[in-house]
Design a protein that fits this description.
The chain is mostly helical and 511 residues long. It contains 14 helices and two strands; from the N terminus they run H-H-H-H-E-E-H-H-H-H-H-H-H-H-H-H. 67% of the residues lie in helices and 3% in strands.
Length: 511
């Protein structure tokens, strides 16, 4: 067993290094040319934040593997070189919270600061905002921890008589305890009287309470974005195939559409110049910020229209090849959409069968993972990790869909080779915040498969026993909201998803 435990530690180290290198690759290929060879601190935060998010998702499968490494140990001391999962969980999520609420806001304030100011003034301005945020968060955390930072566990007082070890023990439904008659007391939780039930109260540790509150904040976003994303991720791909351009448009049609897009581009350029002039004059009020967001949204819509037009009328010497690649791309979307729909249906069915129905009709996916582990040791763990990652992808898909429709969400698109650092930082913060809830949700949904893990202790028992917070989990508020939003999104796509996409840019910016 010692060799297997050592291998687990080595695999964990190698995976962390690979995750870091992959995130560096993403940063290099997604960053905007204007950020090349500068903005090094925001870039470090982006790579570090993405690494923490990926590692946190992979830690739950690692927790399961860590438990399996010791399943044949006769006593705890016989199992060495395993990972200290509880300490790692708390460390990861404390770092997660610090990044989301302090480091990323500071990096965004610094990056978006007035470029005409000196570096010292930009750092000072960003620190002022972060310090105010830190003071408010510290006061709230301290007050909440002092007033409600306790966990209430419902327990039953059970006892039994004793009997000499040499006697034969005979247990059945009628005799569930050692000893007979008055000597046998309440040793069965099922038959014990209500008077044996009591509440055991203890103070949660401060790190666990910080993780719990961060999980609640993330759970609200997870319920909204995840519920929408679990449906729109596969259906968006499928309906994208349905709405695909069936044939190349004529040259006259292309000229007509391109002329309209050119007019909108000129209007946007004129509005952008006016906003830059207002910025230089120092009149950056509420109306200015509103107009900036309106221009950003119109630019995104215009870029989508240009891309759609280029697909319908490929140009150049390799126009036929480009059209063939477009067709193959839509076929790939159809295949991935169908596979994703199967996974989404499995997720929704599992939530209903295992979490919302009491007692559960079946452990469903838990049994699937266990059977896959019987086939090959890490096959079930790999499938488990895939379902967790898919849920995070659904959250990202839901955020991207709602980001274009909700006025209170700042639009920060991720584009290959054209992503500014403030967009990177915003999306990394969103991923980090939701990753906490994804892990908590997976730990609950796959409680049978992930039993006896450190994640179960933190996210399963302690979190769901905290005062005030426990009722959100007792009545399945987040799971019900998740299913309802998934259903509404499905209805939306059935009703409107089949419609062919038309040029959407509508320049309505008021001067």
């Amino acid at each position: 067993m010692g060799d297997f435990n050592l291998a687990l530690v080595i695999v964990a180290i190698v995976v962390c290094i690979l995750v870091f290198l992959f995130n560096v690759y993403l940063l290099i290929n997604y960053q905007h040319p204007d950020d090349a060879n500068q903005a090094y601190f925001p870039k470090f935060v982006v790579v570090f934040g993405l690494s923490i998010a990926a590692i946190s998702i992979l830690m739950l499968p690692a927790d399961v593997a860590n438990r399996q490494a010791c399943q044949h140990a006769i006593y705890n001391g016989a199992c060495n070189l395993t990972l200290p999962m509880k300490q790692l969980w708390l460390a990861i999520y404390i770092v997660d919270a610090v990044l989301v609420f302090f480091v990323i806001p500071f990096a965004m304030f610094y990056y978006e600061g007035d470029q005409d100011k000196t570096m010292g003034k930009r750092i000072k301005s960003a620190l002022c905002w972060v310090v105010v945020t830190a003071i408010v968060c510290a006061l709230l955390l301290g007050i909440l921890y002092g007033l409600a930072g306790k966990a209430d566990f419902t327990v039953r007082h059970l006892s039994s008589a004793t009997t000499p070890f040499t006697n034969s023990f005979d247990f059945n439904n009628g005799q569930q305890c050692i000893g007979n008659g008055s000597g046998a007391r309440q040793c069965s939780a099922y038959s014990a009287s209500a008077s044996s039930e009591t509440t055991w109260t203890m103070h949660a540790t401060f790190p666990e309470y910080v993780v719990a509150l961060a999980t609640i904040v993330g759970s609200v976003l997870f319920t909204i974005f995840g519920g929408v994303g679990i449906a729109c991720l596969p259906l968006g791909l499928i309906f994208s195939f349905i709405r695909r351009p069936k044939a190349v448009i004529t040259r006259s049609q292309y000229i007509k559409e391109a002329t309209e897009l050119g007019k909108k581009a000129k209007e946007l350029k004129k509005a952008t110049d006016a906003l830059h002039q207002e910025e230089r004059s120092g009149s950056k009020g509420r109306k200015w910020r509103k107009n900036v967001k309106a221009v950003e949204k119109e630019v995104l819509l215009l870029e989508d229209d240009v891309k759609a037009l280029e697909e319908m009328y490929p140009q150049g010497e390799k126009a036929e090849t480009a059209w063939a690649m477009t067709v193959l791309g839509y076929l790939a979307k159809l295949i991935l959409g169908i596979l994703g729909l199967i996974v989404s249906v499995a997720w929704v069915a599992h939530i209903v069968i295992y979490l919302l129905i009491d007692p559960p009709l079946s452990s469903f996916l838990n049994e699937v993972f266990i059977k896959l582990d019987d086939i090959w040791g890490l096959l079930g763990t790999a499938a488990f990790a895939f379902f967790c990652f898919y849920l995070l992808l659904a959250v990202i898909a839901g955020a991207m869909m709602l980001g274009l429709k909700l006025v209170f969400v700042t639009i920060h698109p991720m584009k290959w080779g054209a992503t500014l650092m403030n967009s990177f930082l915003f999306n990394v913060g969103l991923i980090l915040l939701c990753s906490i809830s994804v892990i908590q949700f997976c730990a609950t949904a796959f409680a049978y498969y992930a039993q006896a893990t450190a994640a179960q202790e933190i996210f399963g028992h302690n979190l769901q026993s905290l005062r005030g917070i426990k009722y959100l989990y007792k009545y399945n508020v987040f799971q019900i909201g998740f299913i309802v939003l998934a259903g509404l999104t499905f209805v939306y796509y059935v009703a409107f998803g089949w419609r062919r996409k038309k040029p959407s840019g509508r320049f309505q910016l008021s001067s």
